[in-house]
Every structure is written in structure tokens, then in C-alpha cells.
Amino acid sequence: MTEQSTLITPHDVRPAPPAGGPGPAGRLLSPVHFVGIGGAGMSAVARILASRGVTVSGTDAKESPRLAALRALGVGAHVGHDPAHLPETGTVVTSGAVAEDNPELARARALGLPVVPRAAALAAVMEGHRRIAVAGTAGKTSTSGMLTTAAAHCGADPSFAIGSELGGFGTNAHHGAGDLFVAEADESDGSFLLLSPEVAIVTNVGSDDHLDFHGTPERYARVFEEFAHRVAPGGVLIANDDDPGAARLAEVARSRVRVRTFGESPTADLRLTRITVTSGGTTYGCSLDGAALPGVRIASPGRHMAQNSAAALLAALELGLPAERAVEGLAEYRGVARRFEFRGAEAGVRVYDDYAHNPTKVGAQLRAARQVAGDGRLIVVFQPPLFTTTRRFPSEFAAALGQADEVLVLDVSRAREKPIEGVTGALIADRVPLPADRVHYCPERAEVVPRLAGLARSGDLVLTVGTGDVTTVGPEYLARLRATAEH
């Protein structure tokens, strides 16, 4: 955390209810209004509340499929932030993506309405359930999706709130009839400290993410230690024994919470063996405390996906779900949006899209993409996520991108930060360890698709990577290929 940042504590976000007590949202007073309701985390909580019969409204800066889906549930979802959309009673939910000077927040404070962060609202909707929180630098969304899919296959009908639309479910959130609630826990601003899970999963603890908030890798690691201490009495922390940061966390946490580990390490409780990655997915053998379990097969390629599925499997077993059924459920997992998501194929070129936004994630996803590419070339279109991250890790991003055959680097996404003088995508492009004619810096967004069209050929795999509008490159490129074929 930077010196000016302050962690939100549960005490800060649980205002005493007025006479009459809380409404049907638990600690949240109904109606509930979301400022920035189109975000992945915000829309997930809003969807669950609406499914429970709570009156929900919200606003977002632009139209999106998520807003349309919420309207279908009866949510008053509006485009544009306007105080007129704000109810005069109830609770207002906000997130770190919403500016402090937002007019709706100003109006809410003038009315004396409780304004709570998204994580507090998530904690409220999780009450009364067996709570599973999935945290980590990378793999949170995939692990959450895998556990949800496995639990559903076991007949548990879990509630879930995760960071992207889950394949096979068509949504990022669901109010289930069962007692399990799987939630993706966000460490980016420390707000996951508002959760008190029965089962906490930590996929890994890196040193190259969210330093714009936490300031240093040491402070970033420390917030995971605090998260481990949030595990409910009698609960369990599940940690990756192969990841140095997560393994260190497990050792620190053992004195205060029960710990179970997974990984290829011989000391892991759930041990993976014989990991095989192909273009069609990943398989491995595993054992728990020395006893063999059924072999696992997942449709997602990559050793990192094997790790994610192992975390999900161990959590399922800790929750009492049958091993064979849980393994069958993992085989049914069909991915989540923007996590190596197949966007289409034209003229023999396959196009995928991924949300990876730090060097560790980019490197892991390119290793998996290389397996899928087979004999074809791997062409990567990368958009740096933040100015601060680009300034701090240009060489690390470049090294990860060096696994590709051709690289196109866009300029830095401007979604969350103001530009920093001298910090551009060129800082990364200039360091990619490939011949100069195979690295293309594209400062103008309009030149990306034409440049890509001149590079890719039949058999190639194109992967767009990043958090910003790079996600639109794939569909634009595919449309160009279709138009060319029609003429």
C-alpha cells in the first residue's frame, strides 16, 4: 500500500442500521444502488441481490451486455452517472474504479446514505452460506469457475460471484439453492479483508501486480497474511506449495489456521504428477496425503491451469464433495470469458483473447498458447495495462512476450491512470528479445488490425492480451478476414 492508501476494515463498512433494522439484503439496507454496476464484481453482487428479491438499481458509464442482463432481472440499470437515479433511502455500493467526486456519491453522502465498498456488499450476500474465497495474483477467476463447475456437477447448486462470465452458465453470478458460496476475492485494494471465508484459496502470491496501490512487493505479500487471518474459526487455508509466495504464506499462517497445500512439490498434501499439456487440454495424476485420486482432465491447456484445477479439487474435497464426481465436474469446465477465450477462426487463423495483465500472467498464458499453436506461429497483440506497471516492469513484460514469434505492442491502456511522461508501449517493445523486424510498436490503435492482417497466415494463432480495448482487436481482425474472403 502507498502511504496515502488506507485499508478498509469491516468496522468501517458496517454502519448501525436505523430503527426498523436491515432490509432483506442482510447488513445492506434495501434498496441497494450500485455506482458502476457494469463492472464484473459489481454486476455479480447486484445480480445475486436481485435474484433474492431485493430492489436494485445502478448506473454505469456505458452500455454493456451486463446491463442488459441485469435489466432482464428487473434491475434499474442506467447509462450515465446522474444523482437523479439515486434512491433517497437504502445503501449505495461503490468500487475502486469509481472516482471520489462522482456526483452520485456526493448526493449519497449529502443524504446520509451508507456508502460501502463492493467487498462489503459481497460479504453481506455471502452470509448464511459456507463461504469459499479464492485469492491470488493469478488464476482467481479460473479457479473460482472450476470449483463452481465441480460443485454444480456434484449437485451442490452453489451460489457464485466471479470476475467473468462462466462457460456453461452464461453469467458471472448465480443465487443457488445450496449452502456453498464461491467468490473471487480481490486483493488489488486490500478489500478482500472484509471477507471471512470458511475456505480460503491462495493460488499464488507474486511481486508484479497491484503495486500502484500496495506500493511494494513486501506490503503486497503482507496483505495476503492478513487475509489468511480472516479465515473463520475451524476453516482452512489452501495454498500453492509450488509458488514461493504462497508457500511462504502457508508457513506463516500455520500457527493460526489449518493449512492444506497443493502442487508438484513432494511436500504438497494434494500432489500432482505426470502433467501433460496438449492443444486439447491438460491431464495429470494426483494423490491426497499419499492416497491416489482419480486422474484429472481439463479442457484448458497449461500447467498453470493444472495448478488452478488442483486448488479447486482440494477445496471440493475439504468441503466434503465426492472425489470422483468433483473430478468429473472439472472435466466439464469450459472456461471463463477473456481467459484464453477462443474468439473465432478465419482463413486458417485462430484467434484467442486473454486478460493477462502482469508479467507472470502473460508468461504463463504464452507458454500455454505455444502448446495450442502447434506447428503454427504464435502472434501476440499486447496492450500494457497501467503506466505505473509499464514503468516498473518493462523488461519483465518483454521477456514474457519473447516467447511469441511476432509481437505487436500497443500503447498503455488509459482506463485507470493518467499518463506518465515518457512511459509508452515502446518501453516494452524495445526490450522484447526477438529480431527487430518481428516486434511492432503500434502507438495508433487504428494501425493494429491492418498490421496484423499483413502478418498472420493460415495455421497461425493470434492472441490478444491485456485489460483495455485490445479485447476488440480480435473481432475486428476476424471481420476483416471474413470481408476479404467474401470478395
Largest sheet: 10 strands, mixed
**Uncertain segments:** 1-26
CATH class division of the largest domain: Alpha Beta
Mean pLDDT: 88
Describe, in plain words, how this protein is organized in 3D.
It contains 16 helices and 21 strands. By secondary structure, the chain is an alpha/beta fold. It has three domains: 10-116, Rossmann fold (3-Layer(aba) Sandwich); 128-332, Mur-like, catalytic domain (UDP-N-acetylmuramoyl-L-alanine:D-glutamate ligase); 341-486, Protein-Tyrosine Phosphatase, Chain A (Alpha-Beta Complex), CATH 3.90.190. Helix 1 runs parallel beside helix 4, helix 7 crosses helix 8 and helix 9 runs antiparallel to helix 10 (323-332). The longest helix has 16 residues, at 303-318. Mean pLDDT is 88; it is low at 1-26.
Q: Summarize this, please?
A:
The chain is of the alpha/beta class and 487 residues long. The chain has three domains: 10-116, Rossmann fold (3-Layer(aba) Sandwich), CATH 3.40.50; 128-332, Mur-like, catalytic domain (UDP-N-acetylmuramoyl-L-alanine:D-glutamate ligase, 3-Layer(aba) Sandwich); 341-486, Protein-Tyrosine Phosphatase, Chain A (Alpha-Beta Complex), CATH 3.90.190.
